[in-house]
Write a structure and sequence with these properties.
The complex is a heterodimer of chains A (172) and B (275). Chain A has 172 residues and is α/β, with parallel strands linked by helices. Chain A has one domain: Rossmann fold, CATH 3.40.50. Chain A has four helices and seven strands, in the order E-H-E-E-H-E-H-E-H-E-E. The radius of gyration of chain A is 16 Å and the shape is flat. With 275 residues, chain B is mostly helical. Chain B has one domain. In chain B, 75% of the residues lie in helices and 0% in strands.
């Protein structure tokens, strides 16, 4: 049988989300895609559309406003998918750790596959992280991956999985 | 005849190759390395491997109809059918795409469909005028007749310029890519497609490339050399313009194309009739 999973690492499409970052890491991610570093030579496209993405690049400590969005976006990416936390803030909260309005990194909400340190992460580090993420992407299955909070189980009717209401709002 | 049927079967592959070449050429123009030539096929295999998410069945059916009608359009061109039929069938395929955009409950998808309709208003008269002037030159709408005669490029130069004006709309390239507008409405009509279903639209884009270059080849008549020169020239020009210009608003797009393009084609048509 023709093995399709080895083509996953040949065309990783990226979704980039800013969960309250200072914009430093975002500029470095865009620098990766620009002519100097040229991530497109690996087949990377910055789609901006969760339904057509494979790699979820998140920057910033998760602010209160962005946690619903991050879960919603994560649920909209079809499997197999890889989450890459870019920068100290997304990994641990960084300088904002312990503040009342942030959530100390994205791994409280969604499972993270690759952590990229640095404030801000350099383009070389981001490229290494994305390439590491591709190895993980190749070995993943197509099971539905669930966020850690703010979700409920999928509804299955007649063998069709309804995942449109899996991401939930924060209760007031 | 067997060669023609083989060519028809290979049209989606050919479209993918043209799209891959386009990405390489665009990267080289920006002093980048760019993706490999077979990148659209790697994308295809990856998209087949992704888990598909379906919004509703009409959405998918319209996308498949869009793909099939486009394929039939290109097949009719290869078989040398009636040019006017071909242009109206191509309009039908665009309408299927618009319906696919309206069938989901997504604002960006609706905006993409609205813009698609506006661009149809802009480019469709020019396509019809092109086929009408081919009729005036040869006395027939048949593509076989066009291929039997010498090139009509000198007497239809203004119409060729009008065609150059609408090619960026069809291929969704700057400055006329307001229908897709990735940074603005995230792809417009294609936003809700994923996995295998997005691959259908992706292949349709490749076939659209073939359709446009087939229209360009019509101007070359019976000369293979001129056909090749025109295709390569148009390919390089379109990609150069794509790299060098910014997007115009969809209202301005309609104004520019309808005023300039329609004027050029009408002047050419009147010239063919009375001069």
């Amino acid at each position: 049988m023709f093995n399709l999973s080895r083509f996953r690492k040949k065309s990783p499409w990226i979704l980039h989300y800013n969960a309250g970052s200072c914009n430093g890491c975002d500029i470095e991610i865009l620098a990766c895609l620009s002519p100097r570093y040229d991530l497109e030579r690996f087949g990377v496209i910055n789609t901006g559309n969760p339904k057509q993405s494979d790699i979820f690049l998140v920057t910033g400590p998760v602010t209160m406003r962005s946690r619903e969005r991050i879960v919603e976006l994560y649920m909209q990416i079809p499997e197999p998918k890889v989450v890459v936390a870019v920068g100290s803030c997304a990994c641990t909260g960084g300088v904002f750790r312990g503040m009342y309005n942030v959530e100390d990194g994205i791994d409280r909400y969604i499972p993270v596959d690759v952590y990229i340190p640095g404030c801000a992460s350099s383009p070389e580090l981001i490229m290494d992280g994305v390439v590491k993420g591709l190895e993980i992407l190749e070995s993943k299955t197509k099971e539905i991956e669930k966020p850690k909070q703010l979700y409920k189980d999928e509804v299955v009717t007649d063998g069709i999985v309804d995942r449109s209401h899996m991401a939930q709002k924060v209760k007031k | 005849m067997a060669v023609k049927f083989l060519l028809i079967l290979l049209v989606p592959l050919l479209g993918g190759l043209v799209y891959g070449l386009e990405r390489v050429v665009r990267a080289r123009m920006q002093n980048r390395v760019g993706p490999p030539l077979l990148q659209p096929f790697y994308d295809m295999f990856k998209l087949l491997d992704k888990q598909p998410i379906m919004i509703n069945s009409y959405h998918i059916v319209f996308a498949i109809m869009h793909f099939i009608t486009l394929w039939v359009v290109v097949a009719m061109i290869i078989l040398g059918d009636n040019l006017l039929y071909i242009i109206f069938l191509h309009l039908l395929s665009s309408i299927f795409l618009v319906l696919a955009g309206y069938s989901v409950n997504s604002v960006y998808s609706h905006m993409g469909s609205n813009r698609e309709l506006l661009t149809i208003v802009a480019y469709e008269p020019i396509l019809i005028l092109i086929s009408v002037s081919f009729y005036m030159m040869h006395g027939s709408f048949s593509i076989d007749t066009i291929y039997e005669h010498h090139t009509t490029l000198p007497s239809m130069a203004l119409l060729f310029v009008a065609l150059l004006l609408i090619i960026p709309i069809k291929l969704k390239k700057s400055p006329f890519d307001a229908t897709e507008a990735h940074q603005e409405i995230v792809g417009g009509v294609e936003i809700e497609f994923s996995g295998v279903f997005f691959e259908i639209l992706y292949m349709a884009k490749g076939i659209e490339n073939i359709f446009v270059y087939a229209l360009v080849i019509l101007f070359a008549g019976d000369s293979y050399l001129l056909a090749m020169v025109l295709c390569i020239g148009v390919f390089l020009l379109i990609n150069l313009v794509d790299n060098a210009t910014a997007r115009v608003k969809v209202g301005d797009l309609v104004k520019i194309v309808l005023s300039l393009g329609l004027l050029l084609s009408l002047v050419n048509l009147i010239g063919l009739r009375y001069v």
